[in-house]
Amino acid sequence: MLKDIVPPEKGGINTERAPAPPTGSPGRAGGAPLGSRAPWGEVAQAPLGKIAKFAANQEWSRFRGTGLRPCRDTDHFTDDELGVIRAEKSETDAAVARMDRWKLKAEAVKALGVRFDRVARCHRYRLGMQVDVWHFASKGSAAYGGLETCANVWCCPLCAAKISERRRVDLIAGVNQWRQEGHSVALMSLTFPHGAGDSLTVILDAFLKAYRRLTGHRSYRELQTRYGIQGAIRALEVTHGRNGWHPHAHILLFLDAEVDQAQLVADVYPLWVKACALAGLPAPSLQHGVDVSNGDYAARYASKWGLESEVTKGMQKRGEGGNRSPWDLLRSSLADDDAQARALFAEYALAFKGKKQLVWSRGLRAMLELAQVEATDDELAGQLAGNVGDRILAQLDADQWRKVTWARAEGQLLEVARSGDGEQVLAFVDGLRPAGRSARPGARGRPRELKRNRNQIECVPESRGGKE
Questions:
Q1: Distances (CA, A) of 181 to 15, 284, 308
Q2: Nearest-angstrom CA–CA distance, 166 and 93
Q3: Is the residue at 342 inside a domain?
Q4: pLDDT reported for residue 132
Q5: Which domain holds residue 205?
Q6: Local structure of 213: helix, strand or coil
Q7: Is 142 helix (H, G, I), strand (E, B) or coil?
């Protein structure tokens, strides 16, 4: 757990770990290149709410009064307050992950530059005269209010964490409702061969075109009727490895009843091969092109979407088998000053710009008794209060907020705010050095800010009118 968080110049954050609980056993245990390379070029997120580490073979008494209970068939635990499965993560690891998102966001701005102005301004530029520091008693968390947000789920680790967590709640509610009514769910994955020389923009557009051809084909609609597929949710994901970019989709199928997975793969595969051919993609193999997992597997992934699994948190999980997720590219850039990783992230950002992370089939939300109008990314990114006990701990003026951003202490300040003590928040800010030439080690000259001048974006010194 976190202890005695102090300003950076006074020693930083003491992340002393609590004694580790006893552990034991829980009991149950490529094709030809398409296109050419573009000219240039996890976060593992702590879920909102309570976070604890589940060590197997614990007595149930250890969880009394915490709102948590161990899951018999997983290495996670259940949060009774939210009704979802939580990650195996200590509070110290969760705090480090939260602050890492701020570092990755700064690295994303470095990789993207002025091409993504909203990402650069996100959680940095004020909407008014002050910045609110919120404390959410129901979740034990903290957040800023009165700041611009970009709502970019592809490029901004801060907004991606908030948006995907809220979408996960909808998904879990929908899956639970469907299964309680006696129906079934399955997870289908679609991919295709790719090579190291492929341009992500080209193959991504071709992949989405192939998916539209597949789902729009009369034979696929007949297949949906035959298998009792009442709706679907498509999630888009990409990784990068030795064979280049690997875009793929995970589709959660809502079925009337359990189906023969092998037969479903056999029926979908020829349709997927034909759709890829019409979109200009190489023919996928039977082994990798189409995969279908059963209802228990699909439901388990649905419950873990709030962790580092597939679908809504797919962009935040670490790549497997040598592949790197987009957040892994930022980690490489941050740790090794990897210019190639930054170029790849910039290529990824341009290719996915404007794409939807999740697509619900028409009428599915109503069938699952969810809000029929899905909240936009901007609405989710801007959500703050709403529960009894949530309150503003402190309001920072322009000079105070400038001190925080100059010290790059945004994440640390939120960790202080998690205590719920407004005096500690103000004391932390007062302990920071004033913004100026010596505000940050290695800082040179005056701060440089992005300024919009009609249709041109330029970098100007603050003394010439840069807006904070």
A1: 46, 36, 28
A2: 21
A3: no
A4: 94
A5: 174-328+351-380
A6: helix
A7: strand
Q: How far is CA 79 from CA 38, 107, 142, 303, in A?
A: 45, 33, 19, 11
Among 462, 403, 450, which Cα is nearest to 7's? 403
Measure the CA–CA gap between 10 and 2, rounded to whole angstroms.
16
Tokens of 340: 């190639």
Q: Are residues 368 and 406 in the same domain?
A: no
Structure tokens at 173: 């509610």
Query: Environment class of residue 338 by beta-carbon count within 10 Å: exposed (0-12), middle (13-18) or buried (19+)?
Result: middle
Q: Give the type of residue at 374.
A: E
- The domain tally of the chain equals 3
Q: Please indicate, yes or no, whether residues 66 and 87 belong to a single structural domain of this protein.
A: yes
Count CB neighbours of 140 within 10 A: 15
pLDDT digits (tens, 9 = 90+) for 154-181: 999 999 888 887 888 888 888 888 888 8
Residues 223 and 367 in one domain: yes
Chain center to CA of 259: 31
Burial grade of 122 (CB within 10 A; 0-12, 13-18, 19 or more): buried
In angstroms, rounded to a whole number, what is the distance separating the alpha carbons of residues 34 and 282?
9
Give all strands of the β-sheet with 84-86 in edge-to-edge order: 68-70, 77-79, 84-86
Q: What is the pTM of this model?
A: 0.71
Tell whether 59 and 185 lie within a shared domain: no
